[in-house]
Amino acid sequence: MGNSEHLAILKQGVASWNKWRQENPEIIPNLSSTNLRRENLREADLSGVNLRWTNLSNANLLGANLSSSDLVKANLREADLYKANLKDAEVNGAYLSKAHLREACLQRCNLSSANLQGADLTKAYFNGANLSGADLDASDLSNANLSETNLSNAILSNVNLTNADLHCSDLSNANLEFADLSNTNLSDSKLCSANLSNANLQECDLSNAAIDHANLSNTNLADAILSNSNLSNANLKNANLKNAVLSNAILSNADLSDCNLEDTILSDAILSNANLNGAILTGAQLISAKLDAAFLIGTNLVKANLRLATLNGVSLSEANLFGTIMPDGSVHNH
User: Fold this and answer.
1) Is 212 helix (H, G, I), strand (E, B) or coil?
2) pLDDT tens string 6-31
3) Segments forming the whole domain that contains residue 294
4) pLDDT at residue 318, rounded to an integer
5) Can you tell me whether residue 315 is helix, strand or coil?
C-alpha cells in the first residue's frame, strides 16, 4: 500500500505537491495501490513515483511528469495524458484502454503486455520503447514516432499508423491485420512472420525490411518501396503491388499467386521457386531477375521486360507473353 502521508500531500493539490517534491528531492514517493480516479494531476511532478496498481482512470494527467515512474499494472483507462512525460517509465501490464496520449513522450518506456486498445497515441514519441505483447487494437498511432521500438508479438489489428515512423522497429510475429500503414516508414524494420493480411501499406517504405514468412495476403502495397527487402516464403496471394519497387528484393519461395504486379519494378529480384500463378505482371520490369524454377502458368507478362532474366526450369507455355521483352532482348509478338 502507498504512504498515507504522501497521499495526503498530493490531496492538497498539485501546487503543494510539486513544492514538496522540490523541497524533498531525496524522498521517493509511494502512492501504490491508491485510488486517484478522476483526480486533477495536471502538470504534477510524479517522476520516479511508485504508482504500482494505482487507480488513475479518468485522471487529468495533462502535461504531467511521469518519467522513470513505476506504473506496473496501474489503471489509466481513459486518463488524459496529453503531452505527458513517461520517458523511461515502467508501464508493463498497465491498463490504458481509450487513454489520451496525444503527443506524449514515451521514449524508452516499458509498455510490454500493456492494454492500449482504442488509445489516442497520435504524434506520440516512442523511440526505443518496449511494446512487446502489447494490445493496441483499434488505437490511433498516426504520425507517431516508433523508430527502434520493440513491437514483437503486439496486437496492432485495425490500427491507424498512417505517416508513422517505424524505422528499425521490431514487428516480428505482430498482428497487423486490417491496419492502415499508408505512407509509413518501415525501412530496416523486422516483420518476420507478422500478419499483415488485408492491411493498407500503400506508398509505404519497406526498403531493407525483413518480411520473410509474413502473411501479406490481400494487402495493398501499391506504390510501396520494397527494394532490398527479404520476402522469402512470404504469402502475397492476391496482394496489390501495382507500381511498387522491388528491385533487389528476395522473393524466393514466396506465394504471389493472383497478385497484381502491373508496372512493378523487379529488376535484380530473386524469385526462384516463387508461385506466380495467375499473377498480373503487365509492364513489369524484371531485368536481370532470377526466376529459376518459378511457377508462371497463367501469368500475364504482356509488355513485361525480362531482359537478362534467368528462367531455368521455367515453363512459359501457358503465360501471356504478347509484347514481352525476352531474356535475349527479342520481343515476343504472339
Assistant:
1) coil
2) 999 999 999 999 999 999 999 999 99
3) 186-334
4) 84
5) coil
Cα dihedral 35/40/44/50 (nearest 10): 10
How far is the C-alpha of 205 from the C-alpha of 203, rounded, in Å?
7
Residue 201 CA, chain-centre distance (Å), reads 10
d(CA 332, CA 21): 80
The pLDDT value recorded for residue 103 is 98
- Enter the DSSP assignment of 319: S
266 in any annotated domain: yes
Q: List the grid coordinates of 64.
A: 504531467
Q: How far apart are CA 310 and CA 37, in angstroms?
A: 66
- Look at the chain and report how many structural domains it folds into: 1
Predicted pLDDT at 333: 78
C-alpha cell at 237: 496471394
Q: What pairs with residue 215 in β-bridges?
A: 195, 235
176, part of any domain? no
Half-sphere exposure of 258 (CA within 13 A, CB side): 7
Residue 107 located in a structural domain:
no
Strand partners, 282: none
pLDDT for position 307: 95
277: amino acid identity, one letter: N
- Per-residue cell: 199: 492491411
Residue 118 burial (CB < 10 Å; 0-12/13-18/19+)? middle
Low-confidence ranges of the chain (pLDDT < 70): 334
Decide: 39 and 58 in contact? Cβ < 8 Å: no
Beta bridge partners of 49: none
Where does the chain show beta strands of DSSP type E?
Answer: 324-325, 331-332
Is residue 268 situated within a structural domain? Answer: yes
pLDDT 10s digits, 79-123: 999 999 999 999 999 999 999 999 999 999 999 999 999 999 999
What integer pLDDT is reported at residue 334 of this predicted model? 64
User: Among candidates 227, 181, 232, 224, which has minimal Cα distance to 203?
Assistant: 224
The residue whose grid cell reads 523541497 is 23
- The grid coordinates listed for 20 are 514538496
